[in-house]
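Anyone? Bumping this.
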Amino acid sequence: MNEHEQGDRRMESIIGILLRLGVMVSGAVVLVGAVVYLLRNGGAPLPNYKSFHGETVQLSTVGGILAGCREFRGRAIIQLGVLLLIATPVARVVFSALAFAFEKDKLYVGITLFVLAILLFSLIGSSLG
Amino acid sequence: MTIFVFTVLVAVSAFMAGLVGSLTGLGGGVVLVPLLTMAFGVDIRYAIGASIISVIATSSGAAAAYVREGYSNIRIGMFLEIATTIGAIVGALIATMVSGRVIAVIFGAVLLVSAYLSSKKQREQPTAEECGTLSEKLRLSGSYPTPNGPRSYCVCNVPAGFSLMFTAGTLSGLLGIGSGAVKVLAMDQAMRIPFKVSTTTSNFMIGVTAAASAGLYLSRGYIDPGLAMPVMLGVLAGSIVGAKLLVKAKTKSLRLIFSLVIVALGIEMIVNGIRGTL
């Protein structure tokens, strides 16, 4: 095993831990939201999932979700967990870019930043639109 | 049905999907959408939104275990993610433009193809001459551990693999699945990367690919917390238990049964899509 592969292995194990941490944190947040949601609404009849009408701004934008969390709404807390989960692979890409820069691998710094740009285009572009 | 009963039923089903998906290595996502639409009567767009979230969770959760084994190749993954993330955005945009019936038919067809692909045999490892120069230029070549020490490999047909990855990303964004089967097809069959390296690197890529379309789904209102919550927690718990059992269980017959289930669900999705009864 040569030097760059050893560096890669180290980078991969840190990334693996980072990903699991992200999943654990977001899972815990979703669980808290689930308890609040079910305690308050568990006995209510089921919302209409049979036809699609889209979520409201309160549950589909970052601003709306954060505002709902401040009011301790269960559904907003679940969405916060979902946001954290979506952010987890993005954090992985950011970390990879740093690690490649540390290894002075310009080609892969470029490739990784390009992937990051695509992700940010999707996440930011969609929250503005 | 009250919200509480519905949540418990969906969580239990998602747990089973996650368990079987991780035991067979075929992924739980492919059965989630048919389950939510056909058994629970959920609109396919909500089902896709919930499914993509569970895909990110299982892919990211399993990554740590895969990394420890030392098979995944982070450069191959990152390079191909250019194709899968662009594909995922294209797929998610297509999903917002076509009807649920069209999505259902495409979904069914992908299920059938996935079941077929997972039964294919892996190919011989290529020589350095067969691989050409791109493998070295892009630093995709690597090595993986074997009982007799590390074994090196190179990567063939990079442009063909890259195009297949774009397709995998598009399907992932369109249908809310990990499309692991198409990813492994690209790496294992086209690029002729060793099987273990293909499957673990594919798992590594699935989370990033899904994140690219999940943002779009969230802002378009496809992700309902009441659905995403039991699906995510259920699949996650199921796949964690599955990973623990994996060492002991005999997976060959389970894999066959699960493939047959996927075929049956695929046919049912196509029929429902054509009839418009979803």
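Late reply, but here is one note on the structure posted above: Chain A touches chain B through 73 residues (CB under 8 Å).
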